[in-house]
Amino acid sequence: MDSESQENAFVTANYDNKTQHTDFFTIVDNMPTLLINLLNQFNDRLDIKEQIHTNLMIIAQVEYPEANKGWLENMSYQLWTRHTIHPDEGSDFNKFLHKVGMRFLEVEVRRASADLVPAYANKTIALHDLNDELTAVRFAELLGVTIQKNVAKDPTPDEDVFFYPEHTWQYKELGRQPQFRPVCDTDPEFDPAIHPYKITYNGKMYDLTIWALIMDEMFGQSNKETGIVFQPMKASQIRRRNDELFSPEIRDYMPNRTLMSYKATMPPKLDVYKRDYNSKSIPHVS
């Protein structure tokens, strides 16, 4: 696993060497603008613009299988004629651009990987929107997340915060409760061939820390009364945490950042040895 943080995009890539499949867990802040700008580039090459538009509408029919014809035609018309995104960030059109754009990005990543990296020609790739709640749950399960002091111990029902009430759409869609706690080497079912967890030195310093901060933001409001409370993130937020990890006060031992109040703005001079547990729950990624 490896991560990359930019101002408008974040991605963690996870490669399974047994199946030769790669999952990209990503956040793109400005997908609607990127998509509109792509189409605008070809206003003088209508043949190319039409091909991109056609491909996007094919994706739309897959992403919105139950949408009525009139709604899709309206989205298609706006996609062709608009030169800017809708001023209302939460508009149907902007949501449409984001959803279709993420799938279009997946298609392009597959194509580019096959073209530019011959070894990837016969491998499978999937791109996942980390701001989709159940995708974030899957990411948490992949990493292994706990707020227990002893990660090797299963939380009791009175301690567990990572659950969904059975009447919720999340539980019904999952068909089970999330399994955030990782399988540890002390568990009887542990098998190193099935449950590997190998992290490089840089991964231990940077990647595990940035993942823990992301999980804290996304799931840190979860509680014993209501279970999982999910909060989406922006890539720009992650980028700020990324920059903090490379500050002089933190970079020598990046996990110290998880001991601070996560949402606090860092002071000019930081005492990294003063622990601050103001955050409601700080998950430890194991």
What does this structure look like?
- With 286 residues, the protein is α+β, with helices and mostly antiparallel strands.
- Helices cover 40% and strands 10% of the residues.
- The protein has 8 helices and 6 strands.
- The strands form 2 sheets. The chain has a 4-stranded mixed β-sheet, sandwiched between helices.
- The protein is globular and about 60 Å long.
- The C terminus is likely disordered.
- Biggest pleated-sheet summary: 4 strands, mixed
Number of strands: 6
Amino- and carboxy-terminal Cα gap: 14 Å
- Overall residue-averaged pLDDT value: 87
Secondary structure category: alpha+beta
Q: Going across the major beta sheet, what is the strand order?
A: 1-2-3-4
Which segments are poorly predicted (pLDDT under 50) over 5 or more consecutive residues? 264-284
Query: Measured on Cα atoms, how large is the radius of gyration?
Result: 21 Å
The general outline is: globular
% residues in beta strands: 5-15%
The helix content, as a percent range, equals 25-40%
What is the topology?
Elements: E1 2-5, E2 9-16, E3 21-28, H1 31-40, H2 46-63, H3 69-81, H4 92-116, E4 124-129, H5 133-143, E5 145-146, H6 169-174, H7 201-219, H8 235-245, E6 284-285
Parallel strand pairs: 3-4
Antiparallel strand pairs: 1-2, 2-3, 5-6
Helix pairs in contact: 1-4, 2-3, 2-4, 7-8
Give a quick rundown of the structure:
The protein has about 290 residues and is of the alpha+beta class. The protein has helices spanning about 30-40, 45-65, 70-80, 90-115, 135-145, 170-175, 200-220, 235-245; strands spanning about 1-5, 10-15, 20-30, 125-130, 145, 285. Helix content is about 40%, strand content about 10%.
